[in-house]
Amino acid sequence: MKLLTPISRLGLLLALAWATSPTALFAQDPAAETLQQRVGLPTQVASPTTPVKTDEDLGEISVVQKAPVPETFTFSTSQQFFYTDNVFFTDVNPVGSTAYLGSYTASFVPYSLRDWTPRVAVQYNMVRYGSVASGDFDNENISLSSQYVFSKDRSWTWTASVNAARFTAPHANDHEFYKEFVYDNQISHVEKLSKTLPLFFVAAYDLAYHQANPADFDRLDNILSFSLVYYPLPSVSISSFVRPASRDYFTNTANQTDRTDFNLSEGLDVTWQPWKYASLSADFTHTNDYSSSTHQSYNESSPGVSVTGTVKF
Amino acid sequence: MTKRSLTYLLALLLVGATHSFAADSATVTAAVNQVTHGPAQSTASYPAKVGTQLGDGEYLKTGAASRAEMELANKTITRLGANTIFNYSASTNTIDLQAGTFLFSKPKDAKQMTIKTAAVTAAIVGTTGFVQKHGNGFLIGLVEGSTTVTIGGVDYTIHAGELLTYTPGAPPQISSFDVPKFYHTSSFFKNYHGHLPNQSYIDQEIDIYNDLVDRGFIQPPSDPFYIYEPNGNVPTTPVVGHDSPGSALGDFNTPPPAPTCPYHYCCHYKED
């Protein structure tokens, strides 16, 4: 059984929630919102009693329903600082470290319909550790996605995407140590839980195939996500999530045979968006991974803060 | 100084004074039926004709079945509907709407113009829209551009194609309206032949509106009726894919790097 090098998978956990996530790529929202994207369920109200107003001078003023139009260009950056109690993702002698994740994203929507949004996105990430420089890495992504809303109240969404990613080691002549395609299909649903409180429930199911190089890491993910999001103020969100996932690896090696992992993440996030171009977040995530392969299981906790800037036009 | 020089000097002073007055005042450019003006609402009023200039703070008033157009000192065009009265101050660049309905089209420059009533204030930078005040009710809609409306100390931003309605005692409501239909049925556009300073932006906004209708973003009201927040993006959650690259990075670094010492006791041990 392969003994995993105790290397910085915690950073990867946080970084790749962005980096290998097509949804995160096209979402273009603050890092904290990658856990639960900003809830945008429309408010259902009574039909206007006077949808058409006729006035001697104004003529006819007809009220219409207008759905939000995706911005054509989006540029965003997220600067995240976090700490992990288990840099090496190991059960033995866990070591803590501070870390930095710098993320830069650009996305383009060439055309869109009310219920369909295709998107192209590119993203660059750099991860640097305070005490484990050999764990530093850079990551580049390009993502193509198609988002289709298939319910009138926009509460049900199907997103299909493909993401190409490469990972390089900055301290080893930018050696490319890993690359993959991720083919993902996601169904998500959002529900407003209270008529009076801005409290939302978000659920999603993902079926994601990872075609990797080296092929040892080809795998199929089944992921469920459940979130509660509360907005005490329009600019403040408090969210919690739980995310169980199974991972089935297809390639048997000397270190793994019929490997299956069960991964469970829970977290809490508070985001403040004082300005439409910027937000501040604080979050805490805990992950348990139970693997059928020896020495692959781990536990890890990570608090972090981040600042995010976004421009859309 | 000769008599001729004195005459020239006097003429120059008169032209300068006239020019200065024109720059600080508003000029009536159309008047149909009963249109009056005056320094204050309570004082005697005077008929307003094409070419009449209003001094700082003066009012313009239209009667029943009347209308008027006025060019303000900041080159904004205003078109007043029937039974409308407002005061205009060039020094503060403010329109104080007492009652009625008017259209405004302010050129896109950096200078802010304020439209206010007793309860509502709107900051206009470069926008075409309309305002109506009937009793305590207030209505503002934009054909192009955007503006910030302040009600009770709270700012509401509205954009082209949006309508804000407010009645004291209830929160303001923002909804979208059919811009082309308004443009083609409103007497503010049908009954005037003059050129609005933002006409090209109005035409552009109508093209954008029609394109959004074609793409399904704008639809007639239906039941249930939905109001979308500015951040009305469809919620999604990310795919998590951190495990395999992490393992690969571990393989790449085999043999594993010696972990740096995170604890003081271990550093002391090494020093020893």
Describe the 3D structure.
Chain A is 5% helix and 60% strand. The longest helix of chain A has 11 residues, at 9-19. In chain A, strands 4-5-6-7-8-9-10-11-12-13-14-15 form a 12-stranded antiparallel barrel. Chain A has one domain: monomeric porin ompg (Porin), CATH 2.40.160.40. Chain A contains 2 helices and 15 strands. Chain A has helices at residues 9-19, 22-27, and strands spanning 43-45, 52-55, 59-66, 73-84, 97-108, 116-129, 137-149, 156-169, 175-192, 199-213, 219-233, 236-249, 260-275, 278-291, 298-312. Chain B is an alpha+beta fold. Chain B has one domain: Jelly Rolls. Helix content of chain B is 24%, strand content 35%. Chain B has a 17-stranded mixed sheet that branches. The model of chain B is unreliable at 9-22 and 259-272 (pLDDT under 50). The chains are: A mainly beta (313), B alpha+beta (272). At the A-B interface, α1, α2, β1, β3 and β7 of A face β17, α2, α3, β18 and β19 of B. β1 of chain A pairs antiparallel with β19 (225-227) of chain B.
Keywords:
heterodimer, A: 313 residues, mainly beta, Porin, twelve-stranded antiparallel beta barrel, two-stranded antiparallel ribbon, 5% helix, 60% strand, disordered N terminus, B: 272 residues, alpha+beta, Jelly Rolls, 19 strands, elongated, disordered C terminus
**Distance between the ends of chain B:** 104 Å
- Could you describe the largest sheet of chain A, including whether it forms a barrel? 12 strands, antiparallel, barrel
Beta-strand percentage of chain B? 35-45%
Annotated CATH topology of chain B: Jelly Rolls
State the helix count of chain B: 6
Secondary-structure map:
The complex is a heterodimer of chains A (313) and B (272).
Chain A: H1 9-19, H2 22-27, E1 43-45, E2 52-55, E3 59-66, E4 73-84, E5 97-108, E6 116-129, E7 137-149, E8 156-169, E9 175-192, E10 199-213, E11 219-233, E12 236-249, E13 260-275, E14 278-291, E15 298-312
Antiparallel strand pairs in A: 2-3, 4-5, 4-15, 5-6, 6-7, 7-8, 8-9, 9-10, 10-11, 11-12, 12-13, 13-14, 14-15
Chain B: H1 3-23, E1 26-32, E2 35-38, E3 46-47, E4 53-54, E5 59-62, E6 67-71, E7 77-80, E8 85-89, E9 94-105, E10 113-116, E11 120-124, E12 128-134, E13 137-144, E14 146-151, E15 154-159, E16 162-166, E17 173-177, H2 179-185, H3 187-190, H4 199-214, E18 218-219, E19 225-227, H5 243-252, H6 264-271
Parallel strand pairs in B: 9-10
Antiparallel strand pairs in B: 1-4, 1-6, 2-3, 2-5, 5-8, 6-7, 7-9, 8-9, 9-12, 10-11, 11-14, 12-13, 13-16, 14-15, 16-17
